[in-house]
């Protein structure tokens, strides 16, 4: 029996649905999904198996016009994902069509992906009429020579099976890269930090999601089978600390409860989660913070 294994990079604009597609294909939540743009910071790899093929999904940060060091490091990570992958899938939102951002990505592919295999997945197809979908497909394929085009709804699952089966057939022959029961190659400490950051992002809305980061400071396995996890939420100003804590600490309590419940579901056991909020004015300029997020500090230059 021939086994296959390879890496598939998912690229697209922020909010195109890359994280939702990763989670849908893996069947578990390994990638942070919020209605906020630019929430995926590290290249999260989700592992999914289809028949004899193991597909390692690289969920890259959304490609956008970078303004700050963190933005530049994220965009570099996204293009790095394309360079390292066996196959790339570009996600485009059906209802938004060829935006300036999509146009810039198509230009970037022409430069970066020469000789590389790229497929197109038009996502959120339930939001447009069939004639518009057809016109968009033709326009995109006129701009770039995609190997294959898929119409999907990552959120509802439409068309995802067909995409997964095709990807499985395209993977190079070879042994599997990860144990059968492993669904992500991120350390659990980082996944736990991402879960807490997602809850903060959802809770704080527009206030300061990009000005904070979460790190898992310690993870202790207890004799009774539970885990004690201590995390630090770094913010840039004293005023931010007050926002994260909330009136009488109610915001941080609600975030802690939501993150703990999701972690318990993910791990299948009881978790004791403790959050601390600390002010670090220059965390966006500290190499150690980038390492914790799986990004290269130097890429931000």
Description of the structure:
The structure is a single chain. This protein is α/β, with parallel strands linked by helices and about 300 residues long. It is about 35% helix and about 20% strand. It is built from nine helices and nine strands. The protein has a six-stranded mixed β-sheet with strand order 2-3-1-4-5-6, with helices on both faces. Strand 4, helix 3 (about 100-110) and strand 5 (about 120-125) form a beta-alpha-beta unit.
Shape, please? globular
Strand order of the largest sheet: 2-3-1-4-5-6
Number of helices: 9
- Strand segment tally: 9
Can you give me a brief rundown of this structure?
By secondary structure, the protein is of the alpha/beta class. Helices cover 37% and strands 22% of the residues.
Summary keywords:
3-stranded mixed beta sheet; alpha/beta; single chain; 301 residues
Give a topology summary.
Layout: E1 4-12, H1 18-26, E2 44-50, E3 53-59, H2 69-84, E4 87-93, H3 100-112, E5 118-123, H4 130-143, E6 149-151, H5 160-170, H6 188-204, E7 213-221, E8 227-235, H7 238-245, H8 250-267, E9 271-279, H9 287-292
Parallel strand pairs: 1-3, 1-4, 4-5, 5-6, 8-9
Antiparallel strand pairs: 2-3, 7-8
Helix pairs in contact: 6-8
């Amino acid at each position: 029996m021939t086994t296959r294994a390879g890496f598939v990079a998912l690229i697209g604009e922020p909010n195109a649905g890359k994280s939702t597609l990763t989670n849908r294909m893996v069947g578990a939540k390994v990638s942070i999904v919020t209605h906020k743009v630019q929430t995926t910071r590290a290249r999260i790899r989700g592992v999914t198996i289809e028949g004899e093929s193991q597909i390692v999904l690289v969920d890259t940060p959304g490609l956008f016009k970078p303004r700050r060091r963190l933005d530049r490091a994220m965009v570099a990570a996204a293009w790095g994902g394309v360079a390292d992958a066996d196959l790339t899938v570009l996600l485009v939102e059906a209802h938004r069509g060829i935006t300036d951002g999509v146009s810039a990505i198509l230009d970037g592919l022409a430069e970066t992906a020469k000789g590389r295999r790229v497929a197109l997945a038009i996502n959120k197809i339930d939001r447009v009429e069939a004639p518009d979908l057809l016109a968009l497909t033709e326009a995109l394929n006129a701009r770039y020579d995609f190997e294959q085009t898929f119409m999907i709804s990552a959120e509802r699952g439409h068309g995802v099976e067909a995409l997964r089966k095709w990807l499985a057939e395209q993977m190079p022959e070879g042994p599997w890269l990860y144990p059968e029961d492993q669904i992500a190659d991120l350390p659990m400490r980082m996944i736990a930090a991402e879960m807490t950051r997602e809850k903060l992002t959802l809770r704080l809305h527009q206030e300061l999601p990009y000005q904070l980061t979460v790190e898992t400071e310690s993870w202790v396995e207890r004799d009774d089978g539970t885990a004690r996890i201590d995390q630090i939420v770094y913010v840039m100003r004293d005023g931010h600390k007050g926002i994260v804590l909330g009136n009488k600490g109610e915001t941080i309590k609600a975030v802690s409860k939501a993150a703990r419940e999701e972690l318990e579901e993910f791990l299948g056991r009881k978790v004791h989660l403790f959050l601390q909020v600390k002010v670090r004015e220059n965390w966006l300029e500290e190499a150690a913070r980038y390492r914790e997020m799986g990004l290269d500090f130097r890429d931000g230059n």
